[in-house]
Amino acid sequence: MCGIAGFSLKTDEDINARKLGSALLTQIVTRGAHATGMAFVTGKPEKRIIKNYKSNVNAFKFVEQYINKLPVDSKTGIFHTRYATLGSPLINLNNHPIRVGSVVGVHNGHVSNHQELFSKYTSFARKAQVDSEAIFSMLASYKTSESKPTDLLGLVQGGAAVAWLDTRTGVDLHLARCCSSPLAVGQTAEGSFIFASTQVLLGRAVKDAGVKLDWIEEIPEWSYIKVRRGRLVEYTDIVRYESDSVLSEEDTLALELAGADHGDELEESNWRSVDMWTDGWSK
User: Fold this and answer.
1) Arithmetic mean of pLDDT over the chain
2) Cα Rg for the chain, rounded, in angstroms?
């Protein structure tokens, strides 16, 4: 069990990102205290970069040592508190956020088929010991112009609530809940988007940060959403593959999976109607 959290803030809403990040971390620490990390988007539009900080300390010590690295006016960030299972937290590569290529991400859960995913569906060499790396290696391997995250995430077996940033998609925040691992999201009346592992932890964190959410809900399993500056720009069901129908070794790498006709795709969800999202809906 680990804790994940983050935000995608509306450009003109005055929220202190450093205070919010600190509040999120010191709430999700209850889900893991072996290591802590954060990543955020910074830089000018023509040259976005993702800065990543992590250490094998609990969230309270991390806040003391690193939270000042997070700009108070940051608009997109993700956070993680780790309960270590596979991979020692003394090796920082095993801690989150995990960077693979253009992708930096956090994961709560376990990936029971991580070795298979690495051997078949990624174009990056494995660097860490943790199973979570397989997810971000897959996501970094696909070509954004040819495929979608939902073509890949259904391959994950085990439990997964995932959040990631990708330099190829600018300031966008990506979130996915594949199965079992919880993931709660909320939005302010002005349109800023904040998430955490559970509704209780999210509610406590925003209260600590002095931020009021208009609503809080849990994302359904097998769902993917993309958020830009607080605005929902995509909500899609994840293409789910049964354990006995995972793509064969002869199939192409994940980066070539666009349009794959394998497994059973879930019916379109009705999780939140368009008019329930602040600032509307945009494809």
Assistant:
1) 84
2) 17
Phi/psi at 56 (5° precision): -85, 60
Domain ranges within the chain, ordered by starting residue: 3-276
Q: Determine how many CB atoms are found less than 10 A away from the CB of residue 128.
A: 18
| Closest alpha carbon to 163 in 97, 209, 114, 249 | 97
Question: pLDDT tens digit string along 83-93?
Answer: 888 788 888 88
Q: Residues 35-69: pLDDT tens digits?
A: 999 999 988 777 788 999 999 999 999 999 999 99
How far apart are the C-alpha atoms of 149 and 162, rounded to whole Å?
A: 11
**Contacts of 96 by beta carbon, 8 Å cutoff, 6+ apart:** 2, 35, 37, 54, 80, 82, 105, 106, 107, 132
Q: In the prediction, which pLDDT does 55 show?
A: 95
Which homologous superfamily is 3-276 in? Aminohydrolase, N-terminal nucleophile (Ntn) domain (3.60.20.10)
CA–CA separation, 78 and 260 (whole Å): 30
Q: Would you say the pTM of this structure is higher than 0.85?
A: yes
DSSP notation for 62-79: HHHHHGGGS-TT--EEEE
